[in-house]
Amino acid sequence: MLTDLRVRDLGVIEDLSLTFETGMTVLTGETGAGKTLVVEALQLVLGGRASPTLVRAGADEAMVEARFVVETDDGEREIIITRSVPAEGRSRAWIDGRMSPVSALAEVTSELVEIHGQHEHQSLVTPAAQRAVLDAYAGTDLGPVLALRAELRRLAESVAALGGDAQQRAREADVLRYQVNEIAAAHLSDPDEDDALRQEESRLADATAHREAAARASELLESASGNGDGGVLARLAEAAGLLAGREAFDEFRQRITGAAIDLSDVARGLRDVVDGWEDDPDRLVAVQERRRLLADLRRKYGVDLSAVMAFAQEAAVRLEALDNAEETAARLEGERVDAEQELARAEEAVRKVRTKAAARFGVLVGERLADLAMPGARVEIRVAPVGAGDPIEAALGANVGEAVLPLAKAASGGELARAMLAIRLVAMGGPQTMVFDEVDAGVGGAAALSLGVSLHEVSRSRQVLVVTHLAQVAAKADRQITVRKDEVLGRTLTSAVAVTGEERVIELSRMLSGHPDSDAARAHARELLGV
Fold first, then answer.
1. What pLDDT, on the 0 to 100 scale, is given for residue 226?
2. pLDDT tens-digit series, residues 425-451
3. Predicted local distance difference test score (pLDDT) of residue 382
4. Low-confidence residues in the chain, pLDDT < 50
5. Tell me, what's the pLDDT at 150?
6. Which distant-in-sequence residues (6+ apart) come within 8 Å of 197 by Cβ?
7. How many angstroms from the chain centroid is the CA of residue 123?
8. What is residue 164's predicted lDDT score, i.e. its pLDDT?
9. Is residue 509 exposed (0-12), middle (13-18) or buried (19+ Cβ within 10 Å)?
10. Cis peptide before 86 (omega within 30 of 0)
11. Which of 273, 310, 431, 452 is deepest in the core (most CB within 10 A)?
C-alpha cells in the first residue's frame, strides 16, 4: 500500500507531505486548493505524462516521492519511487534510489495503484484488465490453456531449429556432408602439425647449406682454425688448466668446465646433423603439398587447425540431425496437431465458463451502479465467440436509452469511476491501493450515502483514497485529510492536515453548507459521522 507521499513545487503545492494508512482516506477541501494535484502527483510516479506547466512558478523542477510497502513471501518490502519534472527538459525517474527509465514506472507500479477518474489512467479500460476481472469473478482455470500454448510455442521452436523446409534441409545436408568428408580426408589429429611441417620444409629446402653451416660450427668448436689456434673446446680446456689448483678461482674453473661439457654436446649434435641430413626432394614436395592442403582448410573453416577440427565436429552433429530431420519433423507435426486439438477443447471450456459468468457479472455490476446514482445503467461483458473468448470487452450504457459502448467511450469521468467501483465491488482484486477522483460527480442525496458506503466496503480489503466534495462520502471514511490553500507573502501555498474530532465536524459542516459555524450544519455532520 501507499504509506508516504511528498510533493514539491507542483502547481500551487510548494512542499507537501502526506502519510496514509489502511482503510479509506478522503481528501477534501475547497475547489482549487490542490486536491487534484495530489492525484496528479500520484499519476507522475505511476509513469503518467509530465508537462513543464505543472512546475510551480519560479521553481526549477517539480519533485514527487512515494513510498509503498508490499507483502512478499519473505515479509514486507519497501518500494520508493521518485519522479522529477524540470521546468525545461525531460523528466527523470528513480526506483529505490536508482535512476530508471520513466517507462519502467508503469511496469513497477501496475500492481501497486489503480487510479479511477481520468480515462488515460484507467487500468480497467484495457481488454487485458477486463479479462482478468471476469476470470477472477468466474474462477476461470487458465492452467490447461496456458500450458498447451506454451507447448505449441516449444514445438514451433523445435521445428524452426530443424532449418527450413525439406528441400532447404536437403541442400544444407549436402553442403555439410561435403565439408565433413573434406576435413575427414585430411586426417587431422595434431593442431600443431603445420608448425612442425613448416620447420621440416625449411630444412629440406636448404639441406646442403644447413649441413655446411653445421660442419663449420662444429669445426669452430672442436678443431684447429686456419691460423693454428685450437677450437673453442681446446681453448676452454686451456683456460680451466690455468685456473686449476687456485682455490680462489674454483668457482670460475667449474663454470668453464660446465660450459665445455655443454658445448661438447652441441658439437656432437652438429656432427650428427652433418652425417645424417641428406637431400630428399620427394619428401619436400610431400610436405609442401600437405601445407597447401592445411592452408586451404584454414581458409574455409577456421583461423587455425584447432578451429578446423572443432568445425568438423559441429558440422557432423548438425549433419546427423539433418539426416534424421524428416523423421523428427513428422513426429513434431503429429505432436502439434494433437496439441492444437487439445488447445481448442481447453479454450472452448474456458469460453463457456467466461460466457456463463459474463451474463451474471453484468447484471450484478448494473445493480451496484443503480446504488451509485446510475439507475438504468446497463453493463455487458462481451466474450468473443471463438477460441477462449478473447478479446473480452466491458461495455456500458450509462443512461436509459443510450447505446451500450465500450467502457472507455461510454462514460464521463465520474460515471467511469463509479463503473470501476461497481466492478471492483462485484469482483474484488486488483492493486492494493485504489484512488477515486471525480467519483462523486453528479451524485447527491441518498446516492451519495450509498457511494460512501460502497467505497468503504471496498476499503475492507484494500487501501482506498478518495478525492471528494461530498460530506456524505467523506463521513464514511476512516480518516479525513483537508487540503487548504493560503496566501503567504503574495504567493499561494497549499497545506494538508488530518482532521479528527471537532475539526472533522467543522470540515464536514463546510462541505454541507459552506458555513462551518452553522449549528444546523454541525448537527448534520455529527449525524453523518454517527457521533
1. 44
2. 888 767 889 888 877 777 777 778 888
3. 92
4. 119-121, 225-228
5. 95
6. 287, 290, 291, 294
7. 21
8. 66
9. buried
10. no
11. 452
The DSSP 8-state label assigned to residue 440 in this structure reads: T
**Which contacts qualify for 286-293: CB closer than 8 Å, 24 or more apart?**
287/197, 287/200, 287/201, 287/204, 288/201, 290/197, 291/194, 291/197, 291/198, 291/201, 293/186
Say whether 59 sits in a helix, a strand or coil: coil
- What count of residues does the chain have? 531
64: amino acid identity, one letter:
V
Listing DSSP states for 370-403 in one string gives HHTT-TT-EEEEEE-SSTT-PSEEEEEE-STTS-
What is the rounded CA–CA span in Å between residue 96 and residue 78?
A: 8
- Contacts of residue 81, defined as CB under 8 A and 6 or more positions apart, other chains included, come to 45, 65, 66, 68, 93, 94, 95, 105, 108, 109
Give the integer Cα–Cα distance in Å for 315 and 318. Answer: 5
Q: Reduced to 3 states, what is the DSSP secondary structure of residue 17?
A: strand
- What's the pLDDT tens digit per position in 232-261? 888 888 888 888 888 888 888 889 888 888
State the Cα angle at 353 between 347 and 354, rounded to 5°.
85
Question: Can you give the pLDDT at residue 440?
Answer: 77
Buried b (16+ CB within 10 A) or exposed e, 179-218: bbeebeebebeeeebbeebeebbeebeebeebbeebeebb
pLDDT of residue 241: 84
- CA–CA separation, 410 vs 382, rounded Å? 15
Q: Identify the residue whose cell numbers are 496528479.
A: 40
Backbone torsions φ then ψ of 63, nearest 5 degrees = -135, 135
Q: Assign 75 to helix, strand or coil.
A: strand
Interacting residues of 91 by C-beta distance below 8 A, sequence separation 6+: 44, 50, 83, 84, 85, 102
> For residue 441, how many other CB atoms are within 10 A of its CB?
18
